[in-house]
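pipeline/complex-builder :: batch 7 item 3
reading input block
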Amino acid sequence: MAPTAKMNSWSWINVWSIGTVLIAAWVVLPIVAVLYIGLTPSDEIWTHLASTVLPLYISTTLQLMIGVGIGTLIIGVGTAWLVSTCRFPGRRLFEWALLLPMAMPAYVIAYVYTDILEYAGPVQSLLRDMFGWTTKREYWFPEIRSLGGAASMLTLVLYPYVYLLSRAAFMEQSVCVLEASRVLGRGPWRSFFSVALPLARPAIVIGVSLVLMETLNDFGTVDFFAVSTFTLGIYDVWLNMNNVAGAAQLAGLLLFFVVFLVLTERFARRKQRFHHTTSKYKALPGYELEGRARQLAIIGCALPVVFGFVLPAAVLGSYAVIYFEAAANPEVYRHAGNSVMLSALTAFLAVAIGIFMAYGVRLRNERIVRFMARFASLGYAVPGSVLAVGVLGSLGALDNGIDGFMRRNFEISTGLLFSGSIAAVTFGYLVRFLALSFGSVEASLAKITPNMDGAARSLGHGPFSTLTRIHIPLIRGSALTAAMLVFVDCMKELPMTVILRPFNFHTLATYVHEFASDEQLGEASLAALAIVGFGILPVLVLSFAITRSRPGHTKKDQSS
Amino acid sequence: MKGLHIVGVSHAYGENKVLDNASLMIPAGELVCLLGSSGSGKTTLLRLAAGLERLQLGKIVIDDKIVADPEVHVPPDHRGIGLMFQDYALFPHLSIIDNVTFGLRGMAKPKAERRAMEMLGRVSMTKYAQSHPHMLSGGQQQRVAMARALAPEPKLLLLDEPFSGLDTNMRLHIREETLTVLKASGVATVMVTHDPEEAMFMADRIKILGESGRILQSGRPHDIYYHPQHGFVAKLFGLMNRFESVIVGGCVEIPLGKIRVKGLGEGRPVEVLVRPEGVILDSEGKDGPVIDVISTHLLGHDNIVRVRLSDESGAKEDEKELYVRAHHAFEPELSNRITAGVDPEYAFIFPLDDLGGMAGAGYTAWPQPHAAE
């Protein structure tokens, strides 16, 4: 077969595979740029960084990751266990309400809690009034603008990742396994720790890895709280020390954290596949909780929802009413327009490119095409700060190249075409969120039998016509969902937008960030509320999916 | 020449070789069945012919035009080949009529719809034109799939296990219908199946695939049944009684009697396969070895009778139990001495030492009066 392989080694070359490989290369470009700039020898910045701020960045980042990791683990797994295996009043409500904090960007909740908990805020004022304190020295109150504060904020909005995945894992666990364990003499409590938890471990690990990726990505919270994480360090070195090489070196180092997280996640996913011992699902009977346990369960599920969503949303809502005149100015509407325009553009492009790539992989399932597609969908794990450095680095090089070429040949200076334009922002968004659309499009394409392709092709339709007339109509639902997810993520995106946006150009997120950082939360309340409003969309979709797909639960079970 | 010509095709999925130097000629205007077990590469052959799979080695020619060799790959949409899948692959989001018009590209809409209705009429599905695939039964979906495949008037129609998704009763019925429609349209058809009975029923010509796409025998159903050239082919059609023996004096002796053989040298070890209808039971009990009836199973017109040769027959232990096809009127209880003989027309002899080079080897028994000499 050797000659065969040789003859056909270039046969994968066609529009689809070339396109897929080119798109993938283009998406990977910023990451390559970061590594390139970071590895290019420059002045003594690195030794300087290493001896001064680097240890601080590393230890702060690690502490934040540990704090958020443990926090989301406890809240996420605990609430998931309660709603999936116990029975208590309000369980059905909590099942989806526990997802609500997902709608809150961490920076928004940080502004709100700072506003409430700072010295002049209502809580401390109330305490002072009640106990007659007059100065700060007379009592102790936790400082919200601290590492612990940042960890709490991130935990409150990120635990739904862990909740969602571990809940699904608990639901899928065959009731037989759990019952077997109880019959063998283990109580519910021990069954949880010795059977249910280990079985759900891969799902939990995936959830926590995603949470930690988001933690590394966060800029708004740590910036506001002045917690010196890597991400903040990158911006500090870049913008305040004006040293791109140093920023790129930090970014490259941060990538190591990311690689570790991605590998952990991938490893857990692989393990997950072997964990289903039986496909016989039955509705979990559930432990009926009574008395004290019942109250504790209700409180345990209510607290994350109240602190992660209800309270901050209420505060924002009240501010929006009080400061309506100031908050609802035409500028805000313009920023909202910018946000919607950018997000819609990105969502459309991400889904279109996702469909193109997933179909390319489907058409020619060659190793290189598949590999490039996988590689291109790693962007979700790379923190926005790193991507921002990479996008500006690569677009800057492109701009200089074009400028140089035009000057030499036409004596025109084109200046910076892409850097600092909407194109740069869109590019950054695409790199980060392409995985979202590619993943869901690929998953739903996989559900279409290849015989559909075969039938359409043998009936005289080429690959493109087959795509538009068969595949796209069949995957429309999940493509729209993917577009919505990308749209909402773009609406919330802050770390890249802050850097890549054109001069004097605001989105809702950057506007909120700017005003809230100036302690003008009232003015920003309406914009923040708008972001939260959009953020609720995916929560609705997810909760709809939750109530609809319940392995082993028939309609009758649900009504009873 | 007209038709499908597959020359020296080898194909592998990764390490797994499915076709090894397979060659196949299918003349136009015939209904040819490729009969083979799973792993014989029959579906791969269809997919290669249709262009759904890229050819690795060899050549595929349709109507004198090379459609695939290691350099050329005519895409499936330019081959003019109709294809019908095991799961029918109807497009779930399109109505039945839209499914059928899907292949009528470039035809004006009213004309395409007229043509589609005509095709649906041929499979008696006109009244479902506006339905969607999920509303139809398996048999109805099969008919629509056929109408869809035939609508663009393909040069060649490929059917991949077209009846395997149907239950037994339905299958007989649909099979007959399909045959009528195919004959009426006159399209050259290649059908892949693993069901010998189905192949016998449908085919003008059967090609039997062994491992890796090797053709073991090709011929009309009658030839395949009465003159199998390979033990494997003979065994395809149901139960067989198997004996081992050697050639002595131009004959082979089995417990049921002697059979004359032509063309095999003295002393060669052979395998003798006797169809159940080739075992003749004699309730008068005159000649041949005595048998005991173990059980009888009524199949309708015939009985399948399990019998056991008596110890005096001298048969080897693993050759004592036989399957016999007997007329339904056969009533073993009424007789206390039954003997068995062999009808050489249903006995096939294959050399056992002919390792590998079976192709073309076929040694039929000489017709001679039944029972031993």
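note: The beta strands of chain A are 86-87, 287-288.
queue -> next item
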